[in-house]
Amino acid sequence: QAHIVESGGGLVQPGGSLRLSCVASGSIFNNYAVTWYRQAPGKEREVVAVISQRGSSTNYADFAKGRFTISRDDAKNTVYLQMNSLKPEDTAVYLCSRTPYWGQGTQVTVSS
Fold this sequence. Notes:
Blueprint lengths: L3 E4 L2 E3 L5 E7 L9 E6 L6 E6 L6 E3 L7 E6 L4 E6 L8 E7 L2 E2 L3 E5 L2
Parallel strand pairs: 2-11
Antiparallel strand pairs: 1-3, 3-8, 4-5, 4-9, 5-6, 7-8, 9-10, 9-11
């Protein structure tokens, strides 16, 4: 059974940084795009960033542009999300997905 595990979340002060990791079992990321989402309490899930197969292209939500960077290492079956200049409104559960697989998410809390 393929599965995905996210990690790297935590409590960080405004302006701080975190790097999230999304590790897949086996090679389910190979040859597929992978997406980071987030869901804040009381809000709908939204796309944060997408990386194409082999990492040849990336796309970001407007709120993520210039602050977040998505990358992948297929040899490690891992996709990363580097988040800089974090704001309180970035507080959410961050989830990784490669259709139809989802992880459980990792909590990011930005607060002073």
